């Protein structure tokens, strides 16, 4: 196929055990999927229908560094399980959902919280606070064929050696099969899509020079330097 300009390069994330990369198509992020985080953000933790926002494929970053973004003085970390899909479709059944999963990783939903807050007050979309460059640092993905499908296990984040977030995957309000089922009712999800599954309480600001370390038991670790 010929194009009138050079197409953008596909963004890829490392995969454990191979030098081949996972190609990123879309990034879906579920909001307020841990009750304690919903409370700390001022919302009711009751099980309401899930809602999603998106980051851009190019926001995924395997480099191990996070350049502090412009136009913000209040950038927050949010540690999350990342799900990588190998296939998809529409109206996927709950019982078939996990068959579409390639693997899992550890990710950070970095957020320009001050800009997000301004958008909330004005009733506008959040992308300016969520979908900026390098806003989705990620570990290498580990195939589900190696670890299965984690539905419990510690999820934690440290900043400069101090633990700031801790939770368990079993605290997610919407479980992974439910998220895949729900998303596929509104989008034709597909191979290369990522789902960032929400964060436990304890989110907070970082500054230049900080070192972040996250882990999800049975999935992996992520180290990121703020520059």
From TrEMBL:
Top-rank taxon of the source lineage equals: Bacteria
Report the InterPro entries cross-referenced here.
Fumarylacetoacetase-like_C, Fumarylacetoacetase_C_sf
Q: Which Gene3D superfamilies match?
A: Fumarylacetoacetase-like, C-terminal domain
Question: Keywords assigned by UniProt?
Answer: Isomerase, Metal-binding
- Cite the GO molecular-function annotations of the record: acetylpyruvate hydrolase activity; isomerase activity; metal ion binding
* Occurrences of domain Fumarylacetoacetase-like C-terminal (ranges): 27-226
**The protein's name:** 5-carboxymethyl-2-hydroxymuconate isomerase
Q: What is the lineage of its organism?
A: Bacteria, Pseudomonadati, Pseudomonadota, Alphaproteobacteria, Rhodobacterales
